[in-house]
Specification:
Distance between the termini of chain B: 36 Å
Helix content of chain A: under 10%
Largest interface: A-B, 24 and 24 residues
Radius of gyration of chain A: 14 Å
Oligomer: heterodimer
Strand content of chain B: over 45%
Order of helices and strands of chain B: EEEEEEEEEEE
Radius of gyration of chain B: 13 Å
Strand content of chain A: over 45%
Shape of chain A: globular
Structural class of chain B: mainly beta
Order of helices and strands of chain A: EEEEEEEEEEE
Structural class of chain A: mainly beta
């Protein structure tokens, strides 16, 4: 059974710092990996999606990398801002041809606080 | 373009009552999902649908039923609510994997309290 772990569970940094969030998974047979942001009391907003054949994806100050063989993905946030404060979750979609390919596994999330 | 819309956003039920959560998406997505999010448990899949008229069980389906009579709507029903079903429920949708990447888009959530 796929297990997805995000460490640390919480992180506090000063504004302007570059930071890395980690996501590790136990089964490398994945279809893709998606990073989300969740603000308190809100739904999940998709940030980046990396297909299993890709190594990284970039959007603005965000860069996500994927190392399938080692079961790891990182989300790099450059020049962090207070508005980046939120919980960040990663989710892995398995590489399965049947409906089980819809059984995504989510990590527990990293709660980020960027202090002004 | 509203994306994924969930109603109601908040609901309080008594044990044994029934209710239905409605999810609507306007992105013409094939796949739709219902998740629940609980502290310390993360997001868990309840049921999902890969197309109109089809549904399948997820990780925690017991106590819930679903229907997908129209492509744009996915209903989650609780026939006899229990306190253990107190949670925040999220609907999500995506294109099929044959069409695109299967990127998930979420609704804002529905907070349900069962007394």
């Amino acid at each position: 059974k796929q297990e997805v772990t995000q460490i640390p569970a919480a992180l506090s940094v000063p504004e302007g710092e570059n930071l890395v969030l980690n996501c590790s998974f136990t089964d490398s047979a994945i279809y893709n990996l998606q990073w989300f942001r969740q603000d308190p009391g809100k739904g999940l907003t998709s940030l980046l999606l990396i297909q299993s054949s890709q190594r990284e994806q970039t959007s603005g100050r965000l860069n996500a990398s994927l190392d399938k063989s080692s079961g790891r993905s990182t989300l790099y946030i450059a020049a962090s801002q207070p508005g980046d404060s939120a919980t960040y979750l990663c989710a892995v979609r398995p590489r399965l041809l049947d409906n089980a390919g819809n059984m995504l596994t989510f990590g527990g999330g990293t709660r980020l606080m960027v202090k002004p | 373009n509203a994306g994924v819309t969930q109603t109601p956003k908040f609901r309080v039920l008594k044990t044994g009552q029934s209710m239905t959560l409605l999810c609507a998406q306007d992105m013409n997505h094939e796949y739709m999902y219902w998740y629940r999010q609980d502290p310390g448990m993360g997001l868990r899949l309840i049921h999902y649908s890969v197309g109109e008229g089809t549904t399948a069980k997820g990780e925690v389906p017991d106590g819930y039923n679903v229907s997908r009579l129209k492509k744009q709507n996915f209903l989650l029903g609780l026939e006899s609510a229990a306190p253990s079903q107190t949670s925040v429920y999220f609907c999500a949708s995506s294109y099929s994997l044959r069409q695109l990447t299967g990127e998930l888009f979420f609704g804002e959530g529905s907070r349900l309290t069962v007394l």
